[in-house]
Amino acid sequence: MAGDIVSINNLRVSFPSESARIYPVDGVSLKILKGETLGLVGESGCGKSMTSLALMGLLPRPLGRVDGGEIIFKGRNLIGIADAEMAKVRGRDISMIFQDPMTSLNPVYTVGDQIIEAIQAHERVPRTEARRVAVDMLRKVGIPSPEKRIGDYPHLMSGGMRQRVMIAMALSLKPELLIADEPTTALDVTIQAQILYLMNDLRRDLGMSILLITHNMGLVAENADRIAVMYAGRILEEAPTKGLFASPLHPYSRGLLDSIPRMTGGGDKLQSIPGMVPPLNDLPKGCKFFGRCARSTEPCETKEPPLFQKGEGHSVRCWLYEE
Amino acid sequence: MLAYTVRRIFGMIPSLLLASVIVFSFIHLIPGDPAQMMLGDLATPSQVDALREAMGLNRPFYVQYFIWLSGVVRGDFGQSIFFNQPVLSVIADRAETSVLLALLSITIVILIGIPVGVLSAIKHNSRLDQAVSALSMFFASIPTFWLGLNFMALFSVTLGWFPTSGFPSILQSGDWSNIRYLILPAITLAAPNSALIVRLTRSSMLDVSNADYVKTARAKGLLDWRVNMRHIFRNSLVAVVSALGFTFVALVAGAVVTETVFSLPGVGRLVVESLLRRDYPTIQGIILVVAFLYMAINLLVDLSFALLDPRIRYS
Known about the structure:
The structure holds two protein chains of two kinds. By secondary structure, chain A is α/β, with parallel strands linked by helices. Chain A has helices spanning about 50-55, 85-90, 100-105, 110-120, 125-140, 145-150, 160-170, 190-205, 215-225, 240-245, 250-260, 300; strands at about 5-15, 20-35, 35-40, 65-75, 75, 95, 175-180, 210-215, 225-230, 235-240, 310, 315. In chain A, a hairpin with a 2-residue loop joins strand 4 (about 65-75) and strand 5 (about 75). Chain B is an all-alpha fold. Chain B is about 75% helix and about 0% strand. At the A-B interface, helix 2, helix 4 and helix 7 of A face helix 10 and helix 11 of B.
């Protein structure tokens, strides 16, 4: 497809465990289009963070490794390229911000030093020039009097400010893709909205794409163009945001949407999905959601469903939708 | 920071007083009589009594303490019973050896311990790391007298590279080549301490390498060596520097075994010899000086933290 920034095909990530290798990401295929925000949602441990780390070439070494599939970025497969080559992609073409801004900046360097370091890792520019870019970026992300704050150590800033610094750093080289792994989970609710608003603003400004990783359905509803629902290392449903919220197909997606507390109605009980995410070394043989699914039928137990296409850009991994 | 430093220096006074009380009391609890020791077995009881009177040993314990303390405040640590010289000059004579030896071996500890620890952390779980672990376990466990004697046998006796023992003063002779007398002892002392610093550097780097900001550093596209040195190593320095401070003090005052093996006129041996001679003033003097050194190094280490970590500010 012409509009792809990244196309992940059949990605498998494995880790050793006591008995056999486990697969936190097992056969994931995703496309991220130019300029869009793709929301990747799922419970903790579903493999969404592992997918993003694989994309960055930052799987925890030496245990984690990519066991199959490809990640095509600008016509080039990022799987298996040399470390030094991948380092050139990281921070320049694909950037990432993390969940906890309180611990994501190095306490012993000023925020300016850390942004300048990121710039100079990729561009041969004099320090004064890198500093000018850093000040510009800090202004862009809404840090007041950036010429002064650039000399601050991270501990002098609030969590929201630090996440702004992280964003400034991640975007200082105008990447084409920003991976945001739970970027607001650790922040106050009032700050969350500001940070997301800022990210959307900058996305339009820079024409970049965002991979927004979260467990928060409300967040993707407002910020993502498309959503992929992940469970036990697999994509269970992928759809445009509107389509998914209007008519979620997979019982798991439905469960996720039903668990969003609603302010309408009286004292309804909070909905939840029964059971727990199965451990990766003891997954059901067929559909991975089998056992927690209220609508499971006979083939679910033994045969894993493929992705069925249901309408424009809407696909679902569930036997209920077999043609 | 200056105000803090001044406050800390004044804060040492009560600690030193406490140390002096403890030392003074414990030494006087040890059985044995310095007057008897000085005069030998053939002295008559009246001779011993006369000397005790002259030395002030007949006075009550607390009176002795205050007489001693009032001297210390004026810079007079008393006379060594054995050497019949002022205690401070006895210590000063030995300090040259001990300080040079400690400086030499802490240099070796830094030059070996830190780089090997860094390498071991970067290549953790590799063959290299396992070899380093085994070697440092070995060097941390073997007794220094064994290591010292074997070094002496190999490098001094068989190969003839270094003198076997003793240390002619550099201050008195002005001959810096005498430093060769200290090289083998310094290596002997450095061996177990380097091993500890290797392990500490390795483990604190591994701790830091799990930090979120290290992930950020990689995500920026920094190359491995830069992540390792600028982000991981830099943040693990606090632990390493404080360990080096304590190691240094232990090297100045605690090198008894090595000093004995190599017959070096150091402070460690002076302590033990003075104890055996019941040379109270000397022991008290040394312990007070070492306690002061310990507190001073401790203060320096604390002040260095402010340089190493901007979150630490003293006011």
